[in-house]
Amino acid sequence: MTVMKIGIIGAGAWGTALAQVAAANGDPVLLWAFEDEVVQAVNDTHCNSIYLPDNLLSPVIQATSDLSDLSTCDALLVVTPAQHLGAILGQAPVGDKPLILCSKGIEAGTQRLMSEVASDVHPDAPIAVLSGPTFAHEVAAGLPTAVTLACTDMALGEAIATRLARPQFRPYLSDDVIGAEIGGAIKNVLAIGCGVVEGAGLGQNARAALISRGFAEMTRFGLARGARVETLAGLSGLGDLVLTCSSVNSRNFSFGKGLGEGRAVAQLLADRRSIAEGAFTAPVLQAAARQAGVDMPITDAVCALLSGALSAPEVVDALLARPLRKEHVH
User: Fold this and answer.
1) Torsion sign (Cα): 202, 205, 208, 214
2) Gap between the Cα atoms of 49 and 171, Å rounded
3) What is the pLDDT of residue 33?
4) Rounded distance, CA 84 to CA 16, Å?
5) Alpha carbons 315 and 330: distance in angstroms, whole number
6) What is the mean pLDDT of the chain?
7) From CA 68, how far away is CA 80, in angstroms rounded?
8) N or C: which end of the chain has fewer CB within 10 A?
C-alpha cells in the first residue's frame, strides 16, 4: 500500500507539531519554512529552535525553504498565518493535490474563509479543514488530542484521517467545512475577550459567562453562514473555544490578558513571534456580522478595545450595561 506523502506549508509551532504527527510512523514528511534558520535547525539538529524549541523532532522530517520542493508530495497541510494564506498558496505547486487547511481566520478585505481563499487560488484542489482544541507543544509531545477533519469528499477525508491518525491524535470526520472553519476563526476573537477578563482580574465567573455568551455569538454567526449547530458544538467549535479561552498557552488569550493589564495593542503585537490571529480576525468578523445582521456584542467590544476606541474598563462597563434580555433569542 502506497503511503500518502505529506508536505506542510508553514513551520511555526502548529505546523511543526503536525509534522511530528505525520512522521510518527516513520513516513517521510517535508516541512516548508519561510526562515532559513528554521530549515537549518530542523535538518541539522531535528529541532525547531525558534517556534517549538522543547521538542526533539523525528529525523524523517526534512525542511526546505523552496516551495517547489513540495511538488513531490501527495497532499499538503497548510499552516500559514491566515492573512498570508492566499499569497503563499499562489506560489505553491498544488494542482489537484488535496489541501488540508489548518489556519484559522477570515481574510481581511474579502471576508473569505480559508477554504474560499484556497479554492479561488487552486480550483482543482480538493479542500479539507483540520481544526480543534490543540496546543502545539502538547501535540508534539504526543499528549492525547482530538480534532475535527472536515471534508465534503468523505472518501478523501477518510484517507487523510487514516494517514494522520495516531493513538494520541484522533481525527473525527465531518462534511461541514464551513462550520469547522467558523469555529476556529471566531474562538480566537473570543479568547482575546477572555484574556481581558483574566488580565483585569474580573474572576472565573465572568470568564465562564463570556465563554457561554461567546458561544452564542459563534452559533448565530455560524448558522447565518451555513454551518451546522452540531459542528459548532463539537471539537472545532465549543471544544476549541474552551481550550483557547482558558490558558495563557493560547496566543490570543495571552494577548487579551496583556490588554486587560493595560498594555498597548502595538506593544503586544510587536512582542510576539507567533501571531494572535484574533487581533486580525476581529474587525473582519465584525464587518461580516453587521452585513449579515448578526448581533455580536463581545466581538464589538474586542474591536473597540483593539482600535483604541475604548479602554479595557470601559469595554467591560459597556458589556455589563447592555439591556437585559432572554438567554435564547433566535
Assistant:
1) negative
2) 28
3) 97
4) 18
5) 25
6) 94
7) 16
8) N
97 part of the active site: no
pLDDT at 330 over 70: no
* Strand 6-9, strand 29-32: pairing: parallel
C-alpha cell at 309: 476606541
Q: Specify the pTM.
A: 0.94
Selecting among 5, 97, 104, 187, the annotated active-site residue is: 187
Burial of 248 by CB count in 10 Å (0-12 exposed, 13-18 middle, 19+ buried)? exposed
Could you give the maximum distance between any two Cα atoms of the chain, in Å?
62
pLDDT tens-digit readout, 243-301 = 999 999 999 999 999 999 999 998 888 865 667 899 999 999 999 999 999 999 999 99
Judged by DSSP in three states, 12 sits in: coil
